[in-house]
Structure formats: C-alpha cells, structure tokens
C-alpha cells in the first residue's frame, strides 16, 4: 500500500506542477486558463501563482517519499484543490479551460482521498 500512496502523491504533485509552465509568459498563461493576461500586474500575479503551484507540486512529490510529511502534504493538497473548486463554483461562469482545471482538481480530490485513507489505515496498523 505504501507504493500506492507514493503513486497517488506523485500524481497530485504532477497535477500541481503543470501550471509552472505559466512562468514562460502570457501566451502560456492564456493557453492554460483561456484568459487574456494583457495587464502587467495580472501577469505578475499569475506567474507568481505558477511559482507557488510549483512549490506545492515539488513538496507533494518529495512527501511521496518522506512518510513523516505525507499527512501535511495531503492536507496541503486538499486545501489547494478544494479551495479552487469552491471558488470556481461560487463565482461560476468560467470558461472551458477553467472547467478542465476543475475536472483535474476533482481527480486530485479522489487521489488525495484515497491517499488519506491509505495513510490513516497504515498509521492505525502501526
């Protein structure tokens, strides 16, 4: 079961690493999110968002191989994906690119839920 937990955390880590390509500029941000980033302040914020996702993605992958960090990584992953989905649903009217992000985040929730269950079962058996 440890290998499954590791694989699930790596999957969620990769999901969080994908937006790091937004660092490459506004064209990549537009491709990722289907929005025009024509204002410098928005570009700075969106590119910084890419950095933060990269950090979280790296942490999730690192935690996949560091059992003492797995609970924290699962919680951080849940906060990330649940908050995005909650924001998307509360605002509504999002485009197709954002809809894809929501769908991928639902996949991440399923993976994190399974990872949390495996982690708890393993902890209770110890």
Can you put this structure into words, describing what you see?
Keywords: Membrane, Transmembrane, Transmembrane helix. This protein has 126 residues and is mainly α. The chain has helices at residues 2-17, 26-33, 40-64, 70-91, 96-125. The longest helix is centred in the last third of the chain and has 30 residues, at 96-125. The radius of gyration is 16 Å and the shape is elongated. The mean pLDDT is 95.
Order of helices and strands: HHHHH
- Total count of strands: 0
Strand proportion, as a percent range, falls in: under 5%
Q: Give the integer mean of the pLDDT values.
A: 95
Distance between the termini: 13 Å
> How many domains, in number, for the residues?
1
For the sheet with most strands, the description reads: none
Features:
126 residues; mainly alpha; 5 helices
Topology:
Layout (H helix, E strand, L loop, with lengths): L1 H16 L8 H8 L6 H25 L5 H22 L4 H30 L1
Helix pairs in contact: 1-3, 1-5, 3-4, 4-5
């Amino acid at each position: 079961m440890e290998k499954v937990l590791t694989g699930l955390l790596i999957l969620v880590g990769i999901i969080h690493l994908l937006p790091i390509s937004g660092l490459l500029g506004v064209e990549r941000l537009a491709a990722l999110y289907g929005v025009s980033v024509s204002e410098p302040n928005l570009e700075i914020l969106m590119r910084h968002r890419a950095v933060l996702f990269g950090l979280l993605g790296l942490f999730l992958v690192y935690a996949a191989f560091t059992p003492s960090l797995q609970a924290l990584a699962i919680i951080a992953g849940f906060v990330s994906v649940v908050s995005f989905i909650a924001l998307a649903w509360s605002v509504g009217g999002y485009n197709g690119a954002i809809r894809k992000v929501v769908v991928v985040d639902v996949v991440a929730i399923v993976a994190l839920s399974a990872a949390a269950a495996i982690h708890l079962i393993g902890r209770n058996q110890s």
